[in-house]
């Protein structure tokens, strides 16, 4: 019997690339609408939207307009949204108390979406940066250092008020040590045992958050400051595994890596090591960078967005927070 010798010409990998039907049959990874989470910015007022100059195509919207948007996203099959309130300057304080105001913008937004589109998952951001005068995610001690344990009490109050408003998932994005345990404990004690925690477990001190800080209006408060004493150093990846292990031990249901494209290696390591639901955030700066190239006619919008998001899937992400979510959902359902 003749046994083909391994290698060329018996093996030709191009055979399976030749036709669309074989490419479809052997494709290993796919992007689906089930993978998408749409971040949304919410402002005070009525029946109004505002553009975000550094994020072309992204709008901040009032709660009534948010409800209409939530209906549209749900109709496209998007499983969940994540809410970011834009807090007026006069409501910002040193103690961030507006963060746990039951009548605060985030809390009202959650209640409105859950009342009108109950099947759409609602995720809230747990961190103090929109509410503090200095734009840091935590409270400062007398030396100006972000105080971990003092901040934990504030985060617990904030997470509790989100859960009480009806948030399905609370997502601590603050990078304090011990916050997942503190929040989980409080939610259990309050009878909110079904409220899920999506931990921003490996969140890097990234320059790619710039346009987000413009969108929520915290860039001016931060005034050139940075978050390097609590967000991760971009040079580290073993440390990301330790962060994830701790957040899982403390009760996180899902973990997130952020930003996305510059950290695909971290997504892959986390997914392989832990095998738990691993989310990725294609952040504002990634959106701005791609959008600028699209606006200049330098890159093809649809092809590049789809390729970038498929990269997250290939790295092992189970879901992706992306400002392109709505547009992508439209493409995925348009045959
Ligand atoms: N804790 C706040 C928060 N939650 C999500 C983002 C960034 C999201 C984006 O850039 O799209 C940030 C900004 C920051 O940490 O300064
Ligand atoms: Mg941590």
TrEMBL record:
<feature type="active site" description="Schiff-base intermediate with substrate">
    <location>
        <position position="203"/>
    </location>
</feature>
<dbReference type="Pfam" id="PF00490">
    <property type="entry name" value="ALAD"/>
</dbReference>
<keyword id="KW-0627">Porphyrin biosynthesis</keyword>
<comment type="subunit">
    <text>Homooctamer.</text>
</comment>
<dbReference type="GO" id="GO:0005829">
    <property type="term" value="C:cytosol"/>
</dbReference>
<dbReference type="GO" id="GO:0008270">
    <property type="term" value="F:zinc ion binding"/>
</dbReference>
<feature type="active site" description="Schiff-base intermediate with substrate">
    <location>
        <position position="258"/>
    </location>
</feature>
<dbReference type="GO" id="GO:0004655">
    <property type="term" value="F:porphobilinogen synthase activity"/>
</dbReference>
<keyword id="KW-0350">Heme biosynthesis</keyword>
<comment type="similarity">
    <text>Belongs to the ALAD family.</text>
</comment>
<dbReference type="InterPro" id="IPR013785">
    <property type="entry name" value="Aldolase_TIM"/>
</dbReference>
<protein>
    <recommendedName>
        <fullName>Delta-aminolevulinic acid dehydratase</fullName>
        <ecNumber>4.2.1.24</ecNumber>
    </recommendedName>
</protein>
<feature type="binding site">
    <location>
        <position position="243"/>
    </location>
    <ligand>
        <name>Mg(2+)</name>
    </ligand>
</feature>
<keyword id="KW-0479">Metal-binding</keyword>
<keyword id="KW-0460">Magnesium</keyword>
<keyword id="KW-0456">Lyase</keyword>
<dbReference type="GO" id="GO:0006782">
    <property type="term" value="P:protoporphyrinogen IX biosynthetic process"/>
</dbReference>
<comment type="pathway">
    <text>Porphyrin-containing compound metabolism; protoporphyrin-IX biosynthesis; coproporphyrinogen-III from 5-aminolevulinate: step 1/4.</text>
</comment>
<dbReference type="InterPro" id="IPR001731">
    <property type="entry name" value="ALAD"/>
</dbReference>
<dbReference type="InterPro" id="IPR030656">
    <property type="entry name" value="ALAD_AS"/>
</dbReference>
């Amino acid at each position: 019997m003749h046994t083909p010798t391994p290698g060329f010409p018996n093996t030709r990998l191009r055979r399976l690339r030749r036709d669309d039907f074989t490419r479809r049959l052997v494709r290993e990874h796919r992007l689906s609408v089930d993978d998408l989470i749409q971040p949304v910015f919410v402002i005070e007022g009525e029946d109004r939207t505002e553009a975000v100059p550094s994020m072309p195509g992204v709008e901040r919207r009032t709660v009534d307009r948010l409800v209409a948007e939530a209906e549209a996203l749900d109709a496209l099959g998007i499983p969940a949204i994540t809410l970011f309130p834009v807090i007026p300057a006069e409501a910002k304080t040193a103690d961030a108390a507006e963060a746990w105001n039951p009548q605060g913008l985030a809390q009202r937004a959650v209640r409105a979406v859950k009342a009108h589109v109950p099947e759409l998952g609602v995720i809230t951001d747990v961190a103090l940066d929109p509410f503090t005068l200095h734009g840091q995610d935590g409270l400062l001690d007398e030396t100006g250092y972000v105080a971990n344990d003092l901040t934990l009490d504030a985060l617990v109050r904030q997470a509790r008020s989100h859960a009480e408003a009806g948030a399905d998932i609370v997502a601590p994005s603050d990078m304090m040590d011990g916050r997942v345990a503190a929040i989980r404990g409080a939610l259990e004690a309050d009878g909110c045992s079904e409220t899920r925690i999506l931990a921003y477990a490996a969140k890097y001190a990234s320059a790619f958050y710039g346009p987000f800080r413009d969108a929520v209006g915290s860039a001016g408060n931060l005034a050139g400051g940075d978050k390097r004493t609590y967000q991760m150093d971009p040079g580290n990846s073993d440390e990301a595994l330790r962060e994830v292990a701790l957040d899982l031990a403390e009760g996180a249901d899902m973990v997130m890596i952020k930003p996305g494209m510059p950290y695909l290696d971290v997504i892959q390591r986390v997914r392989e090591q832990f095998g738990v639901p691993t989310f990725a955030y294609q952040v504002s700066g990634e959106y701005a960078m791609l959008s600028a190239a699209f606006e200049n006619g330098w890159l093809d919008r649809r092809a590049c967005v789809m390729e970038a998001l498929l990269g997250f899937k290939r790295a092992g992400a189970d879901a992706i927070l992306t400002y392109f979510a709505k547009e992508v959902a439209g493409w995925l359902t348009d045959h």
